[in-house]
Amino acid sequence: MLALVSYYGVDLAVRERPQPAVAGQTYRLVAKSNCRYSSGKCELGNGEFTVTLVYDNANKQFTLRASHPLQQAVLGVSKTSNAENAPVPMQNLTADKKSWVVIMPGDVKVNYNARLVVRALDAFYYAETRLHFIEYAASFNKDLRPNIN
Fold first, then answer.
1. Does residue 116 fall inside a structural domain?
2. Which of 16, 31, 119, 148 is the most buried (most CB within 10 A)?
3. CA distance 45 to 145
């Protein structure tokens, strides 16, 4: 019991305190585990700031949902980690600027890479991830995804 209290007490005393994003600075978004398998979506985050990417294969369209209003969003998809295709600006869908969409001009495949840059409150957030999540697969041949629209 004393060990548990000590562990949490030391963590409370020495942990890094979250800092608000500073305008003009860049922050990396960390890919959550659902980006690495056929989940149908990819969640990226840094502290309280999160974005979710969903791909619609029929329309070759990515939809992005953000926890905070965005000023700008750009997505690039390429076969290798070297940026061979130019990034494509995403279009805002809603007045609250939290939903964005883009139709990709080229091929989008599971083994490709995606690079995302978003701007919120004049701070830039970026991420790079593989597109393993774009094909949704679930047990029992049933779609268990909640409707994101």
1. yes
2. 31
3. 20
